[in-house]
């Protein structure tokens, strides 16, 4: 079952076999449990249209969406709908990072940056929950226009049908005048004068699509269908060189079991020192080789390992690679409760500290490794 989240976009078309669509918002579950989305990394496809605060908080337009003092009216309706109470931007951003890293298709609809002074200036672009996408839109010359004609539309774009529906129904309203394609943006559709109506963005580890928003219900339905048609990389053919298990000798029994389970479930290369280093080999050279050839460095965290010199060295190498490439490299695996290193505290970790939850956490790790 493929799970789709639409935020600010409503799908009213026929049911799509094998697809479950949630039209929900990005508010905190404790503020409005019924209208809050699940963690973003639980979705295979995410479509966000932050046309108003209500759009991105609760999933669809509300009675105050077109009001100039929307935030004030929301708060008067329910004191918990105050933006600071209703929306945890930092948490949702972390979820989005995890979703993108996990291969989710993400589509951001361009929107006017409605800016409101309500205990400080706030913009609806908060709803992108991706600071890099927000910054990119801001510096790319967002223009509010009104048009029905298109210039060039890429024939091989998965959103060709969406643009066709737009031209026949509500037309288009927003475009980018200067997206700077050398900055990680590849335009897929343009206005007759050459402004971009959508494209694929790659901003370091942030990947997704920016599109002019739907202006009719038919266009909303087609946007969902086209988003589902975006081809994902075939896990079998991805450039994947396995996982390196960084650990201390004290945790060897757990690491051996983890390696056996990963191999049994299809992970082709799980680097473990005792399995890779033979008598006479250079210990340092073999470990450096293992790190270099591994796509991920899994750090098994325990009270002993966090102070182990070898683990510190391996973690330092892995973090430097992550910073330089912009890709997720370090996968923290918590084996027992301990004080996490400062630079790992912001990462979502796999919690193997509870034996009864081992299989569930293993399944999450396998998903991170693109193993079906």
Question: Any overview of this molecule?
Answer:
The chain is of the alpha/beta class and 372 residues long. It has 2 domains: 2-232, 3-Layer(aba) Sandwich (Rossmann fold), CATH 3.40.50; 236-368, Toll/interleukin-1 receptor homology (TIR) domain (Rossmann fold, 3-Layer(aba) Sandwich). It is built from 12 helices and 16 strands. The chain has helices spanning 53-58, 70-77, 83-86, 89-101, 131-139, 160-168, 217-228, 252-264, 273-276, 283-293, 309-325, 358-368; strands at 2-7, 19-23, 45-48, 105-109, 115-117, 121-123, 142-147, 172-176, 185-190, 196-203, 206-211, 243-246, 270-271, 296-301, 330-334, 350-351. A 7-stranded mixed beta sheet has the order 2-1-3-4-11-10-9. A hairpin with a 3-residue loop joins strand 5 and strand 6 (121-123). Helix 6 runs antiparallel to helix 7. The longest helix has 17 residues, at 309-325. The two termini are 13 Å apart. Mean pLDDT is 86; it is low at 234-240. Residues 239-372 form the TIR domain. Keywords: Receptor. InterPro entries: TIR_dom, Toll_tir_struct_dom_sf. This is Toll/interleukin-1 receptor domain-containing protein. Pfam families: TIR_2.
